[in-house]
Amino acid sequence: MERKFIQLKTNYNNNYLYCSSNNKIILTHPIIYFFLQYSDAFLEDLVTNLKNNKTRFTDLKFEKRYSKRDILYYYEKYLLLKKNNYLNNIDISKVTKGRVNKENINHYLANSHQICFEVTDSCNLNCYYCAYGKLYNGYLKREGKDLEILKGKKILDFFSEYWDSPLNRVC
Fold first, then answer.
1. Is the pLDDT of residue 153 over 90?
2. pTM as predicted
3. CA torsion sign, 67 to 12 to 141 to 115?
4. Domain parsing of the chain, residue ranges
5. Cβ atoms of residues 51 and 40 within 8 Å
6. How far is CA 11 from CA 8, 14, 15, 45, 138, in A?
7. Are 41 and 101 in contact (CB under 8 A)?
8. In what order do the strands lie in the sheet with 24-28?
9. Collapsing DSSP states into helix, strand and coil, what is residue 151?
10. What integer best gives the mean pLDDT of the chain?
11. By the 8 A CB rule, do 17 and 28 touch?
């Protein structure tokens, strides 16, 4: 089967999908990661048989047992990714060509469309919909601390220098 995407798996067994259409890497649930291994025809048969109680997902090689509800839910998410071109053809040579160097890093820092940093770890990361919930391994222990305002300001000041530089082509 022709690969239409790049899948990544970390040392902590977190699964990611590289999307070339918007140059993003997204965290994917293990079920979606599993779906990416198979053809659409196989998945349609699997889901149809599952809905008709002819197949149990645990019959397939999988690390963990998932409910029928979870499988059907993530199949819909898989279809949504497909519909929104997250599973489109990519030229892997373009993705992997070149090396990481100071100029590239400075360019990407100066042209960041968005930054995200955690201002508190008071949250227990236990919500079903949370990316850090049940499907994310290896995050730091939650200690109920907040980010000091001066540290947050330092992060923003760091990026501001890049955003105000001639390297910035976004603004």
1. yes
2. 0.52
3. negative
4. 6-92, 98-163
5. no
6. 10, 7, 10, 32, 9
7. no
8. 6-9, 15-19, 24-28
9. helix
10. 77
11. yes
15: exposed, middle or buried (C-beta count within 10 Å: 0-12, 13-18, 19+)? Answer: buried
Lowest average pLDDT, out of 40-44, 84-88, 123-127, goes to 123-127
82 pLDDT above the threshold of 60: yes
Residue 136 contacts residue 27 (beta carbons within 8 Å) = yes
User: Whole-angstrom Cα distance, residue 14 to residue 59?
Assistant: 22
Q: What are phi and psi for residue 159, nearest 5 degrees?
A: -70, -35
Residue 78: how many other CB atoms lie within 10 Å: 23
In the block, residue with structure tokens 């599993």: 34
Distances (CA, A) of 159 to 18, 24, 91, 104, 108: 25, 20, 31, 15, 11
Q: Which residues contact 62 (CB under 8 A, 6 or more apart)?
A: 30, 34
Q: Got the DSSP string for 59-113?
A: GS--SS---HHHHHHHHHHHHHHHHTTTT----HHHHH-S---HHHHHHHHHT-S
